[in-house]
Amino acid sequence: MRANQCPACGRAVMSYGRFFKEAEPTKVSLCGSCGARLRRRREVFALLAAMAVLAMAGTLGLMLWQTAFWLRLTCIALFVAAWVLLTNYLGWRLVGWAPAEGE
Question: How far apart are CA 85 and CA 78, in angstroms?
Fold first, then answer.
């Protein structure tokens, strides 16, 4: 889990529960081990853009599905909710941290 390693101390920055509640792409967070000020690497924006494009494609596919409107709407809502959770988890697992210099 190298993406969750602190560049200052080398230990885990935060648990997924804490990441889910407070980490944002532009927000400075403190390392849970050493207290270093960290920000997400710029790759987080590429991940968000890619996941947004894939979410739009999946939603469009569900919209074109020939079934009852209420069923399509329910499936789209479940798909979007699951996609948001997947995007958040992948951000925690794949995108590392950088020192927050000058912030």
Answer: 11
Is this structure's pTM higher than 0.90?
no
The single-letter code of the amino acid at 26 is T
The mean pLDDT of 75-82, rounded to a whole number, is 97
Cβ atoms of residues 102 and 28 within 8 Å:
no
Confidence label for 101 from pLDDT (cuts 50, 70 and 90):
confident
What distance in Å separates the CA atoms of residue 82 and residue 88, rounded to the nearest whole number? 10
- Kind of pairing between the strands at 37-40 and 97-99: antiparallel
HEC string of the chain equals: CHHHECCCCCCECCCHHHHHHHCCCCCCEECCCCCCEEEECCHHHHHHHHHHHHHHHHHHHHHCCCCCHHHHHHHHHHHHHHHHHHHHHHHHHHCCEEECCCC
10 CB-side CA count, 13 A: 0
Kindly tell me if the per-residue pLDDT of 84 is higher than 70. Answer: yes
